[in-house]
Write a structure and sequence with these properties.
CATH topology of the largest domain in chain B: Alpha-Beta Plaits
Largest interface: A-B, 23 and 24 residues
CATH topology of the largest domain in chain A: Rossmann fold
CATH class of the largest domain in chain A: Alpha Beta
Distance between the termini of chain A: 70 Å
CATH architecture of the largest domain in chain A: 3-Layer(aba) Sandwich
Oligomer: heterodimer
Number of helices of chain A: 24
Structural class of chain B: alpha+beta
Bound molecules: thiamine diphosphate
Helix content of chain B: 10-25%
Shape of chain A: globular
Number of strands of chain B: 9
Helix content of chain A: 25-40%
Largest sheet of chain B: 5 strands, antiparallel
Strand content of chain A: 15-25%
Number of domains of chain A: 3
CATH superfamily of the largest domain in chain A: Thiamin diphosphate (ThDP)-binding fold, Pyr/PP domains
Strand order of the largest sheet of chain A: 2-1-3-4-6-5
Number of helices of chain B: 4
Order of helices and strands of chain B: EHEEHEEHEEHEE
Chain lengths: ~575, ~180
């Protein structure tokens, strides 16, 4: 039969007259939700769905990963860039268990994701059937919602709920456990789809209450040393313009969390740096000197607060947050504002006095001078033999004009990347913050590239983490994705080595890693690459990578035992931050 | 340690009990007792959970985490004085021939407990009341020889005038997964 290309709308229109199987209903539901891309891996229990997918290959792009973890992280990268749910499709049992890490990661980093997982026939449930795993039980603590679909008729309604729950309020992962019975049986009525817009048992508040806004405004207007901590919530609610307007009118300095990076232009006069364990000097120390802390879309993670009992005790706290369970969880809020960051900032703006706080903002500069001298300059301008990670990232930042999407893995390079990349464009960071998942970057970068094909996407990865998911090079090649892969190779599991040096008396316990030849590996996957060993050729190497037409792997051999500073040692007060 | 009673209203969904108990186990909080039943509104279940806690703050955080679960309609936390509460216990007590005589009158009058089944050489006694009242009876009857003892979870209603279900969204808005 001749294969004629149809649009998603035509496919949906045609289906409304037919009775379809659960698997087809799933495809149609995805189309109705505007999904056009899936990341997946087939297998026994999901085969009826893959069989249906074959009929929809013109309207649903399926990206075949090489491991289900890759499907999950790719869906996450895609979701971050698209600001909507990424979809992963995998089989039951081991397919499902391979997806656990991304699901957990997505929950901690509030990433919308809909995971569709095959399951055995209804009648085999609970019998330890081949490739049966209790996916609902296993994913209960790491999902925002999960549901087992056991009949075809449920499909449209459950899919509508899944997307609604994943994408609204505080976004998160949803798992649908789809039995073979439900995939194969016919619906008992013609397919029709109603998007979910409200649920009786779930209604996230987006518009904050007036009295909360007024109380917050009053605190902010009275403050002498107010301080904004901007988190991931700014990126999720796309409140960058509102944040900028609020900061400019109020004159309040703005720091970001790791996941809040790129919420504000790195060169904006109000921007003072980033927070947390490896954040900047002044941003951390002055947390314990401000009088009003305005936390927006962030959750006071322990990597940000250090010892809670010594965290901002002097400050009154305005906490703007869409998830009410985060209010007072770690830090007590004087003025909680439950709602979407964008809505809250919009509502606050007219009530805020125009100020500039010059003296207070100067205090940050004083610390900057010290940090610049003790750390930054010694990293970027030195005559040591070896390249430092910071040099590579600073050059990358310059060559990409701060406009690339950086996708970082976990470890020293992650902290260095965020320290030295000067973000000029919003929504430019994809990293695993809450879970700290090594192996995240390569698949997340390929997902990010699919989500933002017009942007330069650079994965910055350590030599250790790269080896956790490197099989996704095959996906990158097969899908012809122009992803740049920068391996900062220090021949160590660097971050762990740093802790062993500083806190375990130099006892390097199993962090010395012997590496393969990364360029040869890339070559085996038909991806070009190069190893840069000398500072003299760093710029040219980076330029070559960036200008290369297609995926490219650049390995930069870095100083082996460089440490990341500043550092707030785990469990200590933020003002006990160490510079060396 | 103070006793807190948490009333949770949910849609009637498979697996929800698990989701709720996970919130407790993750925080290493011990559930003292748990009762689940359908409410006066169809499709709405009510969980009554008793726990002991050092601080009210901990319970407040817990309540917020439970409320966060999709499919949970509402959560209320109470101190003992805010509610009327009850538990039921069944005692299988041995009454062998020639053994000590059971003082039925005392059991009825002093303890408000009732024999609900007569066996050949045992009886089953039902006793309702607060945990303290049940335990008081337990100690009284113990010398007689307790063959089996079981106590239910707490059920409670608040002393507020309105029924809690009235705070839930209207029936028409219902949809049940
Ligand atoms: C899946 C996983 N396993 C272990 C860790 C613990 N861990 C954190 S950083 C790190 C070292 C990373 O080494 P590498 O990828 O070479 O990056 P570097 O720190 O040297 O930049 C390890 C092992 C982790 N975060 N994730």
């Amino acid at each position: 039969m001749a294969h004629q290309k149809q649009t998603a709308a035509e496919v949906l229109e045609e289906a409304s007259q037919r009775t379809v199987t659960g698997a087809h209903a799933l495809m149609l539901s995805l189309l109705a939700e505007g999904v056009d891309t899936l990341f997946g891996y087939p297998g026994g229990a999901i085969m009826p769905t893959y069989d249906a997918l074959y009929d929809y290959r013109d309207v649903l792009r399926h990206i075949l990963v090489r491991h289900e973890q890759g499907a999950g992280h790719a869906a996450q990268g895609y979701a971050r860039l698209q600001n909507k749910a990424g979809v992963a499709l995998v089989t039951s049992g081991p397919g499902a268990t391979n997806l656990m890490t991304p699901i957990c990661d997505a929950l901690l980093d509030s990433t919308p994701m809909v995971c569709i997982v095959g399951q055995v026939y209804n009648k085999l449930l609970g019998t330890d059937a081949f490739q049966e795993a209790d996916v609902i039980g296993m994913t209960m603590p790491i999902t925002k919602w999960n549901y087992q679909i056991t009949s075809a008729d449920e499909v449209p309604e459950i899919l509508a709920k899944a997307f609604y729950i994943a994408q609204t309020g505080r976004p998160g992962p949803v798992v649908l456990d789809f039995t073979r019975t439900a995939q194969m049986e016919l619906m008992t009525r013609p397919f029709s789809y109603q998007k979910c817009e409200t649920m009786v048992s779930y209604h996230p508040r987006t518009v904050p209450k007036d009295d909360q806004i007024r109380a917050a405004a009053e605190l902010i207007n009275k403050a002498k040393k107010p301080y904004i901590l901007a988190g991931h919530g700014i990126l999720i609610s796309q409140a960058e313009a509102e944040l900028k307007a609020f900061a400019e009118k109020s004159g309040i300095p703005v720091a970001t969390t790791l996941l809040g990076m790129s919420a504000i232009d790195a060169d904006h006069p109000n921007y003072v740096g980033w927070l947390g364990m490896h954040g900047n000097y002044g941003t951390n120390v002055l947390t314990n000197e401000c009088d009003v802390l305005i936390a927006i879309g962030m959750r006071f993670d322990d990597r940000v607060t250090g010892d809670l009992s010594q965290y901002a005790r002097q400050a009154k706290v305005v906490h703007i947050e869409i998830d009410p369970a985060e209010i007072d969880k770690n830090v007590k809020a004087t003025a909680p504002v439950v709602g979407d960051a964008k809505e809250a900032l919009k509502a606050l703006l007219p009530l805020i006095d125009e100020k500039s706080h010059p003296e207070w903002r100067d205090e940050f500069r004083k610390y900057d001078v010290i940090e610049e001298e003790k750390i930054t300059r010694r990293t970027l301008f030195h005559d040591g033999e070896h390249i430092k990670m910071g040099e590579a990232v600073a050059l990358l930042s310059e060559l990409t004009k701060g406009e690339a999407v950086t996708v970082t893995d976990v470890g020293q390079h992650q902290m260095i990347a965020n320290r030295y990349y000067r973000f000029k464009k919003h929504n430019s960071i994809v990293t695993s913050g809450g879970a700290g998942t090594m192996g995240f970057a390569l698949p997340a970068a390929l997902g990010a590239k699919v989500g933002a094909p017009d942007r330069q996407v650079v994965a910055i990865i350590g030599d250790g983490g790269f080896q956790m998911t490197l099989q996704e090079l095959a996906t990158i090649w097969q899908e012809n994705l122009n992803v740049k892969i920068l391996i900062l190779n220090n021949n160590f599991l660097g971050m762990v080595r740093q802790w062993q040096q500083l806190f375990f008396d130099n006892r390097y316990s199993f962090v010395d890693i012997k590496n393969p030849d990364f360029v040869t590996i890339a070559k085996g996957f038909h991806i070009e690459g190069h190893t840069c060993r000398e500072r003299g050729e760093l710029r040219a190497s980076l330029e070559k990578m960036l200008n290369h037409d297609g995926a490219y792997l650049l390995e930069v051999i870095c100083e082996k035992e460089e440490n990341v500073f500043p550092m707030v040692p785990a469990g200590q007060a933020v003002d006990k931050i160490r510079l060396e | 340690m103070t006793n807190y009673t948490i009333s949770i209203f949910t849609t009637n969904t498979v697996g929800l009990l698990n989701r709720i108990t996970i919130v407790f186990t993750r925080r290493r909080l011990n559930i003292e007792s748990l009762t689940v039943c359908e409410t006066e509104r169809k499709g709405v279940s009510r969980f009554t959970i008793v726990l002991k806690s050092e601080t009210r703050e901990q319970v407040e955080k817990l309540v917020r985490q439970i409320r966060k679960i999709v499919d949970v309609l509402a959560v209320y936390g109470y101190l003992n004085e805010d509610i009327v509460y009850h538990e039921t216990a069944l005692f299988k007590v041995s009454t062998p021939l020639g053994g000590p005589q059971l003082d039925i009158e005392r059991v009825n009058k002093d303890f408000n407990a009732w024999v609900v089944h007569w066996g050949a050489d045992y009886v089953i006694i039902e006793k309702s009341g607060t945990e303290a009242e049940i335990m008081e009876f337990y100690h009284y009857i113990k010398p007689q020889g307790i063959l089996e003892f079981v106590r239910s979870g707490r059920i409670s209603v608040s002393k507020e005038e309105k029924g809690l279900v009235e705070y839930l969204p209207e029936e028409g808005v219902w949809e049940i997964a």
